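Troubleshooting entry. The earlier prediction with 5'-deoxyadenosine gave an output that would not parse, so I re-checked the input for stray whitespace and re-submitted. Clean input:
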Amino acid sequence: MNVYDSWRIAAMLDARGMCATKNVADADIIILNTCSVREKATNKVFSELGRIRDVKKTDALFGIVGCVARESGATAFHRMPDLNFVLGPQSYHRLPQILENPDAKLLNIDLGGLEKFDEMPQIVNAPTVSYIPIQEGCNHCCTYCIVPYTRGPELSRSYDDVIRDTAMAAQTGAVEICFLGQNVNGYKYTDENGKVFRLSDLIRATAKMPEIQRIRFTSSYPTEMTDDLIEMFRTEPKLLPFLNMPIQSGSPDVLKRMNRPYSLDSYVEIINKLRNARPDIQISSDFIVGFPGETDADFAQTLEIAKRIRYINSYSFKYSPRPHTAAALMSDQVPENIKRERLAILDSQLNEIQRDFNETCIGKTLTCLCEGADKTGRHLIYRTPYMQQCIVAYPKDGAPLTMANIKITAANRASLRGEYVKD
Ligand code: 5AD
Ligand code: SF4
């Protein structure tokens, strides 16, 4: 979501005749788009701001946008008095105000809803993989999570707006569409005639666009994985056989205290339905270890569920207490050394599962999408339908193919190696 937001901000500045520079010392405006989901990311923002202040031109404007801006509000100006602007994730379309009035201090952390999508210019020349936000905010209120505070309650964009943006991306270069939302499978838009549109409707309409060859969406909440959406994995071949559906913990007690009201059985049942609809589907998850009150037995249940589902790719984090959240006030916080230990154990198990899955791909031919060349320029990076990275030698005889059938020749935990299959 932040990558997409940054593209929109860049498009807005582009439209005003500005252009990007790689050198901070040359910049007339410096914008940090920020994430506050864990404390480490927030701290990084302020240390980075200090570095920027020391090298930037004296009259260059600088500020923060996004979730740290919303979380810090006016206190950001106290921590860093030189800042010119602090704009929350739903008010960055107000950035031009600081260009018009550079001597002011601009602060706006309102939850402005979806206004920003209408007020900012479209991204032209869509990247091959185009992100399309379809909803923002979250109503789930997991007790550890700051997102409902920073991004506000759930709002779904209108069906027509999403299809217009998707068609525009398709016509200007997109081959893959990734629908985005904090709770993407909760997408629900009711038009003026009372007709309800769900994520499955967006997928169906997008699949009809000839330029689009791959569709995916992220991130999904387990209890909102409705049957119409599961059915899409059976009927729509352009929908990739890969789904990020975070479980967070394998302990029913911890899930209860996280305010994630699903049982392990109901989670597994959804996975079974998905595998029934698309036998080769692969699942990824997010995990939090060391949530307040998590015991060794709770953690063992997390290891167990990870092994049972065989997530092929996961993100695991140490619990980080966040302001405005209920879990930060819970009394039985887990010591840092235990969190670190548990994270290392979980990571090593997840890595093993990932490597095993990657190895099962050796010898298979997969249709992959090119993401560009690596740093040396001698290799191309492709993504498989399961979102694995696959490295292929740059073709000596001709241009690289955007979509290609690639035979997998080797695998390690992080990536695959492959070669083009000649037609
Ligand atoms: N501490 C650690 N991880 C967190 N996440 C969200 N809030 C926290 C927190 N307070 C993780 C969740 C979520 C992912 C985006 O970030 O796993 O799925
Ligand atoms: Fe945060 Fe996701 Fe829970 Fe919403 S569903 S509160 S975004 S972790």
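This one parsed fine. The longest helix spans residues 336-360.
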